[in-house]
## 1
Amino acid sequence: MKNIQYFLESQAFGVCTKLGEKLGFATSSIRLYFIYLSFLTFGSPVLVYLVMAFWLNIQKILRRERSTVWDL
């Protein structure tokens, strides 16, 4: 089970993990609420998840380009 969890967390976008770190909630509870909310609202939170994943990837790219303070 740990191997499957590690694979999914490493291959996923990390949106729930980042949200959990920012808000101070457990990642597993955020994932559960996301799943429940997706079933109740017929999958509309999937769009929000994809937008947040896109935003996180853009942030990673921008951080990679500007590695020092002097790179402006």
Note: The first helix runs from residue 2 to 11.
## 2
Amino acid sequence: MPKKERKRLQVVISDEQDALLTRTAYELSSPERLISKSEVVRLAIEKIARELGEGENLDQYRAILDTELLSDDS
């Protein structure tokens, strides 16, 4: 069976965001299964897309993005 083709995405994240990603992966992991930071990102993408599709949390996500844009400009 051929391997599933995946797209690669490179993003620049802050040290704080990396720490959040690491902590989240650790919290989702269990002794039976370690969760990678990539899996956390994929999960977050699916969760956000699902919520937006249902019309949930749109304003909250926009506020977070606006805050990040302001801090990036500094």
Note: The helical segments are 15-28, 37-53, 58-73.
## 3
Amino acid sequence: MSLLSMLDGGSGEARCSASGCGATAAHALHWRNPRIHSADRVKTWAACDEHRETLAAWLRSRGFPVTATAFGETVERIA
């Protein structure tokens, strides 16, 4: 199963991961929890333009390293 199919619910378009937001994702937020995962364990959230910084700030406030890319780009490691 691809990242796109997991995030879009089968509609063909990825949707923002922010609660209640149905906007099309334009960005990917790649992150990990350093307390339990090594640098090569990357999780990804989708984000629209409006929620990109809000979602990234939420992750950073918990001490999670975050890297933002255009949606569809992948990241192998998060330092």
Note: The two ends are 26 Å apart (CA to CA).
